Amino acid sequence: DPLAAQGLLARTTCINLTDLDSVDETHRSIVEEFGRIDVLVHVVGGYHGTSTLERASAEDWASLHPPIVTTLANLTATMAPAVRDSTQGRVFILSSTAVGTPTAGSIAYVAAKTAAEAWIGGVADYFEGSSAAAVVLAIKALVTDDMIAAEPDRDWSGMTRADDIAAAVLDACLGPVRNGARIDLSAAT
Predict the structure, then answer these.
(1) How far apart are CA 24 and CA 33, in angstroms?
(2) What's the angle, vertex CA 99, arms to CA 97 and CA 104, rounded to 5?
(3) pLDDT tens, residue by residue, 86-130
(4) Which residue from 22, 21, 73, 24 is spatially nearest to 44, judged by alpha carbons?
(5) DSSP at 54
(6) Is residue 160 a contact partner of residue 186, using CB atoms and an 8 Å limit?
(7) What is the DSSP pairing of strand 160-161 with strand 182-184?
């Protein structure tokens, strides 16, 4: 475990992040058990796309907004004060390199990721004057060894492995990172 090797302790839990009361209860539980919250990593999302701007785009927005934006809002509104008070506080979101270049078919997905990045910009502003940092990690898409093995002749350039995301989080937790940074991980693979 890379975190344990660095003398760090991590806890995972499964909750409904769209339920503010559930997030608040988890926050209280973590602070009660550990006394603080140092790092939040928001890796919630999903992709829906269409070939053109059509009714499905509005339906995609309705299905993507809660898991991408609402969960981030609930998580940070509840836990960002504890992260800000930590001597090594970090909040990370996993976003998309497509932010800033929406297409008619990706409009709902890119709009949700753009909203999440705007939210994290507000978190960065909230962290000003502290040692905490809010950081965007941008990827094109996730790739796994199984995906590569299944299609060895496919061009996987620009795709990001989960290990590369974990390494970026660990580096930013153990070393300096600019509050409000946007780190493009699409060149990692």
Answers:
(1) 14
(2) 115
(3) 988 999 999 999 999 988 888 889 999 999 999 999 999 999 999
(4) 73
(5) S
(6) yes
(7) unpaired
